[in-house]
Amino acid sequence: MTVVFDSDTIAPHERVGAVAAAMQEASVPSHVVLDPPEDRVHATFDVWQFGEASVFRARTSGIQLIRTPKQVRCSPAPVLAVAVQQAGNGRYEQGSVQRVIQPGDLHVMDLNAPYDFSWRGEGTSTCLHVPLDQLGLSAELIRQAATRVQDSPHYRLVANHIVALTTDADALSTDPAAALSGCASIELIRGLLLSAGSDDGSGAVVASDIVLSRIRAYVRRSLADPDLGAEQIARAHNMSVRQLYKICANADYSLEQWIISQRLEQVREDLTKPDNRHRTISMIARRWGFRDPSHFARRFRAAYGLPPREWRTIATAEREP
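Given the sequence above, the corresponding structure tokens read:
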């Protein structure tokens, strides 16, 4: 089990501060209020990585998490939280939504909006963190879906899936195919949100988001193709280039910039892998569709603030014991 925090290793008089700090490190900045008395406060946090997605399980005594508008502004979150209550009754308030979350219930927590979440006594919650850029859904649709996610036919499927990930999480997260489990989890969350996100049941909102979601998924699968571009993407989705750009513009989404940013992220990750030590930076960049080394180097520095060679040196040194 990947235990990242266990309050039993902390002196009783230091646990309140330690639990609060560990919770914020595992999630996002928030005000953490713990039920007294101090000597009965306890918590265990587990984290497992599944490629781009991760699972965070919190087992604690009574706790309240309050994320304020200021914290949202100062510390925007790159992930969406989809959580299943496993023990104790949780209480959740965000925007106009107030719910009691019973064991087995799922709820969507927009970490980029204020919220108040708590439980009294013993409680356990398992949360799937999904990168927003991998979901490819608008903030508006996510907000709409969060208010009625329990009405989706995918609701129980996703709730059971999140719990099942923790049943044998140590083996699953260390398996060579762990990243594929993460991809499948992201797709399940996308399906859940698209299903719940239509305004009136007409499917109008869902249809455009589904198309954009498919486009983004196609791009991620095709990043290594140096010819990837608007014409190829439009052809693969049986539409004109004009239609493609219109869909992207309506979602305030720059296709070319997103392709480049995704390629840069893949290169940055590969530069840190020990298996790639024998490969030159140009080889790795070319593997992800960058034909011009000078163009790649300029874009990398603009994105990350360092030349790729310097970044690789620093990242490699940090990995060494």
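The longest strand covers residues 79-87. Try to locate this feature in the token string yourself.
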